[in-house]
Write a structure and sequence with these properties.
Blueprint: H1 2-17, H2 21-47, H3 60-90, E1 99-110, E2 115-126, E3 129-140, E4 143-159, E5 162-173, E6 178-191, E7 196-205, E8 215-224, E9 227-229, E10 232-245, E11 249-262
Length: 263
């Protein structure tokens, strides 16, 4: 009797866990199919000759004002960013981490759903700008969710040792194959002569054809430098990540890993 009771509990546990990684992949596949159906519907409507007419635009004063506003706005942004980048170069000796290369390997575990994640990442910091790539492999008894994330451009606003960030890029799910626009806000704070680093970020993806976001992510981590040799620095890291896929599947990951930096 005890054996059968244990067996029933085991199968109940497996059934509960099955509502995680497999659910995310199922929602991505559904979103992909819905997007394809919408595209075919639009193509049929255009083929009937009822497409959008090209708007009339006869130039003149309105066009001149619009072009002038665009030109001077773009020029002002460019000049402001260029001046900020030069200021970052002048202060590089005081804040060397603003021009650096960073790699990380961390593993996460959700105790409630018995889900694991392995997340290697690479990041290049270049003054006001940065770019970051990561590969996240999330696994439970139902399968694996492999995702490639690239924050193509990250704009950084420094306030001494504190850097506020906004980034934009994309997230690509490998199976089923689907990509989403991704945005990110957060901060990076160096303390104790740059030996302690605190990070917090919130990342969100675009709305899907299902009416909700593919993913929302909140992340907090702390790392402390234990080795410094020349330009190489090594720091163990601990942290916590919260993932919410399609407003239905959620993970609470406790994570740990190693970070190496060059600056």
């Amino acid at each position: 009797m005890k054996f059968f009771t244990s067996l029933i509990i085991f199968f109940c546990f497996v059934f509960y866990v099955s509502g995680q990684v497999r659910d995310v992949r199922s929602k991505v596949a559904q979103d992909r199919n819905d997007a394809g159906s919408a595209l075919k519907s639009e193509s049929r409507s255009y083929s009937g000759g009822g497409g959008f007419d090209k708007p009339d635009w006869d130039g003149g004063c309105g066009a001149f004002i619009a072009e002038a506003l665009f030109y001077y706005t773009f020029q002002g942004i460019y000049m402001g960013l260029n001046a900020g980048q030069q200021a970052m170069r002048y202060r590089q000796s005081d804040y060397p981490e603003t021009f650096s290369f960073e790699g990380a390997l961390n593993a996460g575990f959700d105790f409630n759903t018995r889900t694991t994640a392995l997340v290697p990442s690479l990041r290049l910091n270049h003054g006001l700008f940065a770019s970051e790539v990561r590969y996240a492999s999330t696994r439970d008894v139902t399968g694996v969710l492999d995702v490639f994330d690239w924050q193509v451009l990250v704009l950084r606003v420094p306030v001494k040792n504190l850097k506020f960030e906004y980034g934009i890029g994309f997230s690509h799910v490998f199976s089923p194959s689907k990509s989403y626009l991704d945005q990110n806000v957060g901060f990076d704070w160096c303390l104790l002569k740059r030996r302690l680093t605190l990070k917090a970020h919130y990342r969100w993806s675009q709305n899907t054809n299902l009416g909700n976001r593919y993913r929302q992510e909140s992340d907090f981590s702390s790392d402390y430098e234990i080795l410094h040799s020349g330009k190489f620095r090594l720091a163990p890291m601990v942290g916590f990540s919260y993932f919410n896929y399609f407003d239905s599947t959620k993970f609470n990951m406790v994570k740990a890993g190693l970070i190496f930096r060059f600056f």
